[in-house]
Design goal:
The complex is a heterodimer of chains A (172) and B (159). Chain A is mostly helical and 172 residues long. Chain A has 7 helices and no strands. Helix content of chain A is 83%, strand content 0%. The longest helix of chain A has 44 residues. Chain A is globular. By secondary structure, chain B is mainly α. Classes of the chains: A mainly alpha (172), B mainly alpha (159). At the A-B interface, α1, α2, α3, α4 and α5 of A face α2, α3, α4, α5 and α6 of B.
């Protein structure tokens, strides 16, 4: 039952992504592309692009998009509910504990170890999607230019993506 | 997104003080999931209890849900022409670059001592050489952090 599978997959994604936004990309890629084969790597990147260009959290955007693609309106609803439910359960619990136990040192200790690992996972996700997407000089040139602009300037990422798309129309 | 949330909750509505908002952020960032959604849940909970949670979560999720559903419906109903295909061909490497940039910027903030670099090195070896689910690697790191915390504390706690 695809609706239930969408809910469970996105529940798992929501449950294990600490650090928001980009921290979710490796998990979404694993579930949606590799485990379930709902999307090809190309389609996954296209959804990321759409999720980045439109307003709102990347997690919600990609859940809604993947869900809609696989199961229409119900699929979109199931995936979105799936990705939000772990937040609902944990934030209410943590909010209660945090206020009560003044910042919970155990929670801080666990997070201190999780953060460096999340960075590595984002890095590996970039490599695994990059391997499929960057396959000639033109695509490599776009990637390097955008990377440099992201690190050295304050250009809005949405603007950079749209510009890359326009360049794509010209050079491909 | 955070500056928008802060302006709305602290300045425009006056629902929370700056200090309370920092607590909210700490919880939102320590919890799994999207930070914007987590902030909405916590703020709703503090102000109104469960009904507040329901209303705030719906409010935070609906705009994305509606926009993306409309977009997905349009994209799946039409066959994209060559111009749209080339547009996406140009965007894909840019998306990869954005992910790389995020990893580098986060890495600069997070990889600051032997503890964090050691953990990152181990995680890199595992993620490149095994097929472990990222969730397993994250859970393993959290567990390691806890064990390390208690081992560090033990020698210091005896008077």
């Amino acid at each position: 039952m695809i609706i239930w599978e969408l809910f469970v997959s996105f529940f798992r994604i929501g449950l294990f992504s600490f650090g928001g936004g980009y921290a979710m990309i490796p998990l979404i890629e694993r579930e949606v592309v590799r485990n379930q084969a709902w999307l090809t790597a190309q389609q996954f990147i296209d959804i990321l692009a759409v999720a980045e260009i439109t307003p709102g959290p990347i997690a919600i955007n990609s859940a809604t998009f993947v869900g809609y693609k696989m199961g229409g309106l119900f699929g979109g609803t199931a995936a979105t509910l799936g990705v939000v439910t772990p937040s609902l359960l944990t934030v209410m619990t943590f909010a209660f504990l945090f206020v009560r136990f003044n910042g919970a040192p155990q929670l801080k200790a666990a997070l201190a170890a999780v953060r460096p690992v999340v960075v590595v996972l984002i890095f590996s996700a970039a490599i695994s999607v990059g391997r499929l997407t960057i396959n000639d000089i033109r695509s490599a040139a776009i990637a390097v230019t955008v990377l440099i602009l992201m690190l050295r300037t304050k250009f809005n990422p949405i603007l950079l993506l749209l510009a890359a798309g326009l360049v794509g129309i010209i050079i491909f | 997104m955070l500056p928008v949330i802060e302006r709305e909750i602290v300045h425009t509505r006056g629902w929370q003080s700056e200090q309370e908002f920092i607590d909210v952020l700490a919880v939102a960032q320590s919890s799994p999931g999207a930070i914007a959604i987590n902030t909405a849940i916590f703020t709703g909970y503090k102000l109104l209890g469960l009904p507040g949670v329901a209303v705030a979560t719906l409010g935070a999720v609906l705009p994305s849900f509606i926009i993306i559903t409309l977009l997905a419906a349009t994209l799946t109903a039409t066959t994209p022409g060559p111009i749209v295909l080339d547009f996406f061909k140009g965007i894909r490497p840019a998306v990869v670059a954005l992910i790389f940039a995020a990893a580098l910027t986060l890495g600069k903030k997070v990889l600051v001592d032997n503890f964090s670099m050691g953990l990152a090195a181990v995680a890199l070896l595992i993620s490149l050489n095994s097929n472990w689910h990222p969730a397993v690697i994250i859970a393993g790191a959290a567990l390691f952090g806890l064990v390390y915390h208690y081992r560090q504390r033990r020698p210091g706690t005896s008077p």
